[in-house]
Each structure stands twice: as C-alpha cells, then as structure tokens.
Amino acid sequence: QVQLVESGGGLVQAGSSLRLSCVASGRTFSNYAMGWFRQAIEKEREFVAATRPSGSSTFYADSVKGRFTISKDNAKSTMYLQMNSLKPEDTAVYYCAARLTYTNPYYTSAAQYDYWGQGTQVTVSS
What's the mean per-residue pLDDT of the chain? Predict the structure, then answer.
C-alpha cells in the first residue's frame, strides 16, 4: 500500500508562484513513476506533469510547459510541483499520483496510475 499526501496549495494572485509537495510512504519511492493532475470544477481530471522513477526526465502538458516544474527527491520520498506565472485558469484541485510498474517513458492518463493523494486546492485570482 502507498500513501500520498499533498500540501502547499492556497489562494494567490495571477503571476504568483506556489510549490506543491507530495510526500509518499509505504513502499520504495524510487521505484515509482509519478505524476501531477488537476481537476477544476465541472471539468475532468487532466494531466499536468510526469516524471520517471529516477526523477531524471520529465514531461508536461502544453498548458503548463515553461511555467511548471516537476521534481522528485527520492531521498526524501517527496515529489514537488513548482508553479510559476500562475494564471486564473490554473485554479483547480491538484493531485499527485504514483504508478508502481514502469514500462513506458511517461504516463499521462489518470487510469494508468495506481495510487492517489487527497488533493490540494490551488486558487488563482485575477
């Protein structure tokens, strides 16, 4: 069993930055492929960013490319999402996810992940 706990969300103005954290427990964190997703009100959950188990390579949705950075600190069992130049359309609940098996370069579908955190709210005002 894997437990994921997100933190770092909040209410900020457009143009601001936030850093989300996702702390994992339960199994060897360095073996997980990880991802960030978000879900706005009345919208489907969408992919934001993904990283390989080592954290050495990353992949982003076009909507956040150049503004968000995903990173993975295996020594701390923690994944981060640094969000810069935030926009009102970034407002959503952000979720971290873990996948225990790794065969593809990246995983961008929510259905491909095995474990999820409870989410953290990010609200960006204009």
Answer: 95
CA distances from 72 to 15, 30, 44, 57, 66 (A): 24, 9, 25, 10, 18
| Tokens 């225990």 belong to residue | 100
* E strands, the chain, in order: 3-7, 10-13, 18-25, 33-39, 46-51, 58-60, 68-73, 78-83, 92-99, 115-116, 120-125
Q: 91 pLDDT exceeds 90? A: yes
The per-residue pLDDT for range 29-39, each reduced to its tens digit, is 888 999 999 99
30 by DSSP, 3-state: which?
A: helix
**Largest Cα–Cα distance in the chain?**
41
